[in-house]
Design brief:
The protein is 51% helix and 15% strand. The protein is of the alpha/beta class. Strands 3-2-4-1-5 form a 5-stranded mixed β-sheet. Helix 3 packs across helix 4 and helix 5 crosses helix 7. The longest helix is centred in the C-terminal third of the chain and has 27 residues. The two termini are 47 Å apart. Keywords: Membrane, Transmembrane, Transmembrane helix.
Length: 203
């Protein structure tokens, strides 16, 4: 299943209700690129995010033949800088049209002033070191709690949580990390139990 980075291309004629809907749908990490115009500034003000102005997004009467390509490069450069944040571009309607033709030539513009484009991206990397350390902690806690609850209860709860997170695209890497931690934890616990059985005086 492919994952996509969200790019929101917004016309400077966007109404307050469209801006409010966009703001509510944005993730915690977002960059807003804006044309240095009063109309774009008004739209950005409704998003509540500090913008990054760029003169390339300013309206022009006679666009160069490669303007769409340069707009595409600008947006992709900011997107690649952090593939797990939303990117918002606010500019005039003519520039919006050029940008969409270059950024998503097969996608029809959405109704209204806001068009969402999805750029394919790889999966978020799994934090292997943290998962391994978490597995060690899980093993330690499971062994300590063995007198109160069965040994398998805590690993089972963590494994179920990991499986649930696998179903959420944005949290899949955390689910994978939890499952790795469970595998490491069970391995460490079994080695500890085997060691204590072989050398009972060590516990």
């Amino acid at each position: 299943m492919k994952d996509y980075q969200r790019i929101f291309v917004v016309g400077s004629q966007a109404g307050a209700d469209e801006v409010a809907r966009l703001r509510s749908s944005l993730g915690r990490s977002v960059v807003v690129l804006t044309a240095p115009t009063a109309e774009a500034k008004q739209v950005v003000g409704g998003l509540g995010v500090e913008p990054v102005p760029d003169v390339l997004l300013a309206p022009v009467r006679f666009p160069d033949v490669d303007r769409g390509h340069r707009l595409d490069q600008l947006v992709r450069a900011h997107a690649v800088a952090d593939r797990f944040r939303d990117v918002v571009v606010v500019t005039d309607p003519a520039t919006v049209t050029l940008l969409l033709r270059a950024l998503a030539p097969d996608q029809l513009p959405m109704s209204g002033a806001v068009t969402e484009v999805g750029l394919p991206r790889g999966a978020r990397p799994v934090p292997l070191l943290q998962a391994a350390l978490g597995g060690g902690v899980l093993a330690f806690v499971s062994v300590l709690a063995a007198n109160a609850v069965p040994f398998w209860v805590l690993p089972l709860l963590v494994a179920v949580t990991g499986l649930v997170l696998l179903l959420v695209p944005r949290l899949r890497h955390l689910g994978e990390a939890l499952l790795i931690a469970v595998a490491v934890g069970i391995g460490v616990s079994l080695l500890s139990i085997a060691g204590s059985s072989r050398f009972p005086g060590s516990w």
